[in-house]
Amino acid sequence: MTSTTELLDLTAARLAYTPKADREEVQRNYAYDLERFITHSSTTSINPDPEALESVLASVAHALEKGLAVEETRAGFGAGRLPLTMQAVRELESTGHASSITAGARACLRQYVEYHDNLGLTLPEGSEAELRAFVADSPRSAATGGSITLTKREVENATNFDYDEFINTRYSIRHYTGAAVSPSDVELAVSRALKTPRVCNRETRRVYAAYDSDLRDHLLSFHHGNRGFGHKLGAVLIVTSDLRGFDMIGERNQPWIDGGLFAMSLAYAFHAAGLGACMMNWSEDADHDQRLRAEFDIPDNEVIITFLGVGHLPEVFEVAASPRPAVNDVLREVQLR
Ligand SMILES: Cc1cc2nc3c(=O)[nH]c(=O)nc-3n(C[C@H](O)[C@H](O)[C@H](O)COP(=O)(O)O)c2cc1C
Known about the structure:
By secondary structure, the protein is α+β, with helices and mostly antiparallel strands. It folds into three domains: 14-39, no CATH class; 50-136, no CATH class; 152-312, NADH Oxidase (3-Layer(aba) Sandwich), CATH 3.40.109. Helices cover 47% and strands 9% of the residues. It has helices spanning 2-17, 23-40, 50-69, 82-94, 100-118, 128-136, 152-158, 163-168, 183-193, 213-220, 254-272, 286-295, 327-330, and strands at 205-210, 235-242, 276-281, 302-311. It has a four-stranded antiparallel sheet. The structure holds flavin mononucleotide. The site of flavin mononucleotide has 12 residues, from strand 3.
């Protein structure tokens, strides 16, 4: 009997600890995500927005650059993707949307042709003339595209530092001096975090920064989970992911994956710069998400991944120990059923 009483108490305590939702409420919230995914992605119909086309171009050009980067490259690989790549570049450039993605696609096609020519391989028959004309029309630029060469030595040299010390001194920081974080510190961290993997090389990550302390406090008045340290943050960032970059139902959760990986890189980038950072959840329901959007200019086509607080470290400070499990609690070898 004692154990039943304890169990009931524990359940009541758990119910009181986190807000509960009934099935309808869960469905309403999923419907909110679903509606925005359908509206802004190109899953059920093509989104004509140039951002969506840019994403397709990044993806299709990436398929070609992957072909140049694998061990066994076939002559004429990716032939079916060439016309779409060229047409997307032309369309974006002619409508004033030239970017690193269009430049990268041009560089990739140049390398595609050079690769074939250097090895005496035949270009895909139906596309050869158009491809050669397109490349002849592409100014040689410093744009990165196609494949690049890296050596094992370069990787060894770059990783010759104490990685354990680096990661083991990164904690979610909840003590700050209160000094402002400069936009240039944030720019550096964001530029480093841009190196984070992303699906098919499509750029859907976005960051909104609040530097001013009044703006920070107003923003944080919408956030649950910053008590005790929010007012000392040097800047608050909102990491989002742009739904226009996605075009398959299988990608319905991809914004959170790409955005989450990016947010982690940002936290490491701040750590590398000697600044403290703390992820700050946006685990909010549809109503609260809309309240924030009504107040700040986060576009409807972006999902909010997380807030991230950043600030200057005091000389000595406490951090939550946040114990971790043993590796074998997490790591399993996959088994056949
Ligand atoms: C997506 C996400 C949201 C988080 N939100 C908050 C938050 O709102 N407030 C907070 O103090 N910590 C927040 N954290 C920090 C976690 O509590 C912390 O990462 C965890 O305890 C591990 O500790 P460590 O980061 O110091 O290693 C969040 C972490 C993640 C990944």
